[in-house]
Amino acid sequence: MKETLGLCTPESKKHIAYLSSIITEDDLSILKSNPEEAQIEIKNIQMSSGDTSCITTIEIDNWLSIYSIDTPGKFINRRTLTLKLVKRNGKWLVDFRKEDLPQNEKSNPD
Asked: Please, how many CA atoms are within 13 Å of residue 87, restricted to the half-sphere of its CB?
C-alpha cells in the first residue's frame, strides 16, 4: 500500500488508508495462495480539456475483492473500474475519493 500512496493524490490518502485497514492476514493468505497474478487492461482514456485530468476505464482480471474486516476476500474473474487521474507537477496521479469506493466499502467514516 505504501507504493500505492506515491501514485495517488494527497487527498486520496485517507481512502487508501481505510482500504489498507480492512485487509486481514486471511486476505493476504488468500492472495498468496492464488498462482495467477492480476491482469490489467486499459479500456478507455477520456482526456479533459487542457490535458491536466482524465477519466480512465480499466478491466482487472483475477481481482481480490475485499469488503470488510469481517469477511474474507474472494477472487472475482473480472472487475471494471473507472478512475480519475490528474496531472500535478508533471506527474499523473490517481485521484481516489470516497465516491470511488465500491458500494459495500462506503461505510468508512470521512
From this structure: 9
pLDDT tens by residue, 13-26: 888 888 888 888 88
d(CA 60, CA 19): 18
| Contact of 78 with 59, CB cutoff 8 Å | yes
CA distance 108 to 96: 14
User: What predicted TM-score, i.e. pTM, was given to this entire model?
Assistant: 0.74
* Pick from 50, 57, 103: nearest CA to 84: 57
Please check whether residue 70 is in contact with residue 107, taking contact to mean a CB–CB distance below 8 angstroms. Answer: no
CA–CA distances in Å: residue 16 to residues 43, 48, 73 = 23, 25, 17
Which one is predicted more confidently, 72 or 55? 55
Neighbours of 98 (CB within 10 A): 14
